[in-house]
Amino acid sequence: MKILITGGFGFLGQRLCKRILEIGELVGVNDETCAVSRVVLFDCSQPPPDLPTDSRVTFTKGDITDAGQCKNLVDEDNMLVFHLASVMSGQGEADFDLCWKVNLEGTRNLMEACRARKGSRFIFASSGACYGERAPGPELDSMKLLPQTSYGMTKACCELMINDYARRGFLDGRVARLPTVIPRPDINSGLPAAFSAVIRESLFGRDATLVVRPDLRHAVCGFRVLVRNLLHLAQLPEAALAGSSDRCMNMPSLSVTLLDLHQAVKKVVRDPAKLGRITFEPDEALSAKLSTFHNDMDATRARSLGLVGDSSAEAIAADFVAEYVDESLLKPVVELEEEPRHWLTLSNPYLRVFRVENPPGDQTLMHRHRGNSLYFFFENTRTQGQKLSEAFLDDAVSCGEIRYGDHASCNLVHRIRTKGPRVMCCLDVEFTASDCKPEGGSEGPDAKRARTEPPAIAGLSLIKERPTARVYSLEVPAGGSWQGALPFERMLWIVHRGARVSGGLGDSFLQPADVFFREGPQQLSLEVLGGQRSLALWLVELL
Amino acid sequence: MKILITGGFGFLGQRLCKRILEIGELVGVNDETCAVSRVVLFDCSQPPPDLPTDSRVTFTKGDITDAGQCKNLVDEDNMLVFHLASVMSGQGEADFDLCWKVNLEGTRNLMEACRARKGSRFIFASSGACYGERAPGPELDSMKLLPQTSYGMTKACCELMINDYARRGFLDGRVARLPTVIPRPDINSGLPAAFSAVIRESLFGRDATLVVRPDLRHAVCGFRVLVRNLLHLAQLPEAALAGSSDRCMNMPSLSVTLLDLHQAVKKVVRDPAKLGRITFEPDEALSAKLSTFHNDMDATRARSLGLVGDSSAEAIAADFVAEYVDESLLKPVVELEEEPRHWLTLSNPYLRVFRVENPPGDQTLMHRHRGNSLYFFFENTRTQGQKLSEAFLDDAVSCGEIRYGDHASCNLVHRIRTKGPRVMCCLDVEFTASDCKPEGGSEGPDAKRARTEPPAIAGLSLIKERPTARVYSLEVPAGGSWQGALPFERMLWIVHRGARVSGGLGDSFLQPADVFFREGPQQLSLEVLGGQRSLALWLVELL
């Protein structure tokens, strides 16, 4: 598979390229997995000094406003194009014509080049700046886009164009409406630049004066999550996007203030006294303009498609320290929700579910597990684990494997490194300790519920039993259906192998690692649509 | 004032030009009224044979996709541009590239030409086809635009562009999101063409087979109302558009089916047997595509700005008969709500308010007034009136004049012709006959409520008293305020001279002929903002 990344010399382009090379293969047209044969980085600026030396990567300096160059870039069928190149918000306000030429005409040049080929998949970075003037409350995918910058206007136009190109079958377009990706290691000029600076400058020990109101709420996400989500979006089966003619969706984000981020940095470093000093001299006009950007982007649709968000501002800060400053500045052990590769995807009084994906060569920060946990694995790969003050030990995980960790009595503090050949992909289901149950006053710390025998339900096989949970497996063949009475008080459904379904888990395309929580005994029926994919589920009964 | 109309050889362009010439002057930049010095009709097609011969009109055949030609067209400051030229929906689906080039690049060429001049006012015809996929129910201005045709996509992009050009002060843009304008006298090719054909073909005595589902609901408006609204939108003071960064709004419309229109035609003609026969052979694919267009456009904002809608499908049909077929085919007298120059703007169990505007040279159809009515006039002009079977008699009305007609006992059947020099502009307030009161079972036909004395309220002057109503006048100076206790059971406020206000009539820019209905005794306060305009109101007490 040949991949094109525009804005390829920029921060996001570089991160995306690195991750693609680590993974080495991607799912593309017809849901076929293909090895990455070539990654073309295209940009109008000078290449940075530390470009990747991988033989699969080529570099092209050029101008996206030149339609001929775009045609040359998309010179094969079935290419995957990540279009990240853009004039940013501040520059767009300063130079309308450039903003139009690059963001709108440039995007169209590239789309036309894709249209001239078969099977192009086109991933576009839109922006929460599209929202602009709107009612208070979270920004929803279904809301009208009424941008208040030329940058946002061009992005909103591109969203409309891509939907139409996709509708007509000119290309397979998918649009990620981005929150502000932070922290950028370079000093950048967009309106939301302060949301990077508040982390970056203090960590590099530089004093900084920020001109945005410290209490202004803004939707942000960490670079790792964004890169992962762009790749996830690019690899979604076309069937997962059916059912809506809108190819554009908000990416998951955190709604934070500059003060929140400043506090998060202090919380993850070993010695807050060594941080650069942050002072605020808010520019009211700039703050007002920025407040028309995304404050709190709702990403319900994206999350239902397997896209993930940072668990906390601390995770974003910690990731930056480890990647761009000096890991030794961090406190020695971070909490699970502060670890930047653990993405909280479900949380309720009974459990927390984290999604973890580590490409080969990558490793987590040293982190602490405090609760008893089930681990569900989705890939065959080799890893290495290191407990605090011990050496790395080799390990291997396999697709479908389930492990249990009894961490409530003795916390697990460790880090994991992926050796390969594939991404380490798992779900961590952490059970809230039984002595911390927030409800049911009559249950004291030592109260134990009477254990019932596992029920016999046709189709369900009990495959694991531990003090906090039982795990059953269920398989439904392609075109088949299943129904059963489930007597459980609380249960978690986890998708092992996905398919298009209708019934009790919604009318949707289920993908591996999708998670559903249900309460109360219920009758559940499931129909697996289509004749090709069978469905495999795990049902976790909470005890 | 120099005016440019693109698409000027088309049906709407021709109607608009005709009306502009009749009026002869328009309100433009700085709310100054200027004589129309030149109307340039620009189009890419061959000029029709019956172009206006007025010396103020010039014709230019050209291509809007040529930026240089656009620059030549906008060759003065303070021009008023009506941009109607467009590739329509059906053609856009057939030829995407042409649709993009004309609708998007062409519009931008023209906007750039406006930007290069000072004080350009840019009126753009967008379309309800912008809505596309959406939740059931009426289309609101505040809804997301998710078009399902390339035509709709380009229109939605232009809306975004115009908002941004207006925000940056490049031009004063105003966007009319059009329902389907019917009936077009020529055979046209857009997806909604059947909504014209159902009227046109039967009236010309031609049999027709329509391929749209007869029960498909669609938002339409008559050509007269649309032309009037485009001119009203163009002349709105800038202050009336403040308070929202969205320059785009739905035009008022009727939500009708082809069957509704077919019935309406039968109702207004003298002899339905002479109509051409309409048969339906619905194409489900076309009907499905059309159902993504506007079904029921909500125009609350436009109506609050003085834009009007057709009173009925019958009015649309009757107007077409009189203008394009043969007035003698009509039944001899139409009802008030069937008369195409009477626009119902308020209706409740107690009264109906019609707005009437007749330019010089125009005349109403012969119509019937059945209820006692107050008439409020807003311009000085001369008219002629003709009662059924009588001769035309000269008359004159003056701005601020109020008349009363006692039509319940003896219907008034008449028609009015405007001689000039100005548009005849009035509000007809028709009172529901007291023996038809829908509420209060104890009031028989002969029951009369005890007449109270008119209350003495500081600032209010009683200027007219009739059996059904008393009219008071109220003036509030610029920068001043007024408040009073109003003991009336039901009242109608009518704006005589407008101003920006806050208080009991909303925070808005009031314009002459704006109407507000209020029930129950209340305390009302009004503040007139700004130092230039004083406010003059009429208060109608319903007896």
UniProtKB/TrEMBL annotation, chains A, B:
Residues 3-185 form the NAD-dependent epimerase/dehydratase domain. Pfam families: Epimerase. Keywords: Carbohydrate metabolism, NADP. Coiled coil: none annotated. InterPro entries: Epimerase_deHydtase (IPR001509), NAD(P)-bd_dom_sf (IPR036291), RmlC-like_jellyroll (IPR014710). This is NAD-dependent epimerase/dehydratase domain-containing protein. It comes from Polarella glacialis.
